[in-house]
């Protein structure tokens, strides 16, 4: 209610950063390259162009973070500020609420688990593009 009802999910490229990040109140960086460190997509110079007291949440902190100014924090000391921008970079965020996060994860993944169990992994991946896109390792290769 305080920030309105607008949320955008965008691809991580220079044009998206210029268009959305610099005009956002909250930026959530969720970048994953299997087997590699997360790329640094938001540079320190971007912070001066963001609104004061905006918040950056770096979900990719487990892979080194996707913001140049990200550093790992903890549940007990979760935030710090750089150039007027609040950073929240807690690894394993669901760990703060293990029972709730486990129930949510089970609810979200059960249909995929059942599909894999009922069809076998090869047929399930053939039939379901979402499962196929989630494949990270096959035959020992990333």
| End-to-end Cα distance | 42 Å
Net shape = globular
Fraction in beta strands: 5-15%
What about the largest sheet? 4 strands, mixed
> If you average the pLDDT, what whole number results?
90
Briefly note the structural class of the backbone.
Answer: alpha/beta
Count of spatially separate domains: 2
Name the CATH superfamily assignment of the largest domain. Answer: NAD(P)-binding Rossmann-like Domain
- Stretches with pLDDT under 50, minimum 5 residues: none
Reported by name, the CATH topology of the largest domain is Rossmann fold
Q: What's the tally of helices?
A: 5
The counted number of beta strands is 4
Percentage of residues assigned to helices: 25-40%
Radius of gyration: 18 Å
What is the CATH architecture term of the largest domain?
3-Layer(aba) Sandwich
Q: H/E element string?
A: HEHEEEHHH
Secondary-structure topology with pairs:
Layout lengths: L13 H6 L6 E4 L14 H4 L7 E4 L20 E4 L2 E4 L9 H22 L1 H7 L1 H5 L9
Helix pairs in contact: 3-4
Describe the structure.
With 142 residues, the protein is of the alpha/beta class. 31% of the residues lie in helices and 11% in strands. The chain has 5 helices and 4 strands; from the N terminus they run αβαβββααα. A hairpin with a 2-residue loop joins β3 and β4. α3 crosses α4. The longest helix has 22 residues, at 98-119. The radius of gyration is 18 Å and the shape is globular. It starts with 13 loop residues before the first helix and ends in a 9-residue tail after the last helix. The relative contact order is 0.11.
């Amino acid at each position: 209610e305080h920030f309105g009802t607008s949320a955008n999910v965008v691809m991580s490229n220079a044009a998206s950063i210029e268009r959305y990040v610099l005009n956002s109140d909250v930026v959530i960086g969720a970048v994953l390259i299997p087997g590699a460190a997360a790329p640094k997509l938001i540079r320190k110079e971007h912070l001066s162009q963001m609104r004061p007291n905006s918040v950056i949440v770096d979900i990719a902190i487990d892979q080194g973070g996707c913001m140049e100014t990200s550093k790992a924090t903890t549940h007990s000391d979760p935030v710090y500020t750089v150039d007027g921008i609040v950073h929240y970079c807690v690894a394993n965020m669901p760990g703060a609420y293990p029972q709730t996060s486990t129930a949510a994860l089970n609810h979200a993944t059960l249909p995929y688990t059942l599909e894999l169990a009922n069809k076998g992994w090869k047929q399930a991946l053939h039939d379901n593009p979402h499962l196929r896109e989630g494949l990270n390792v096959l035959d020992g290769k990333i």
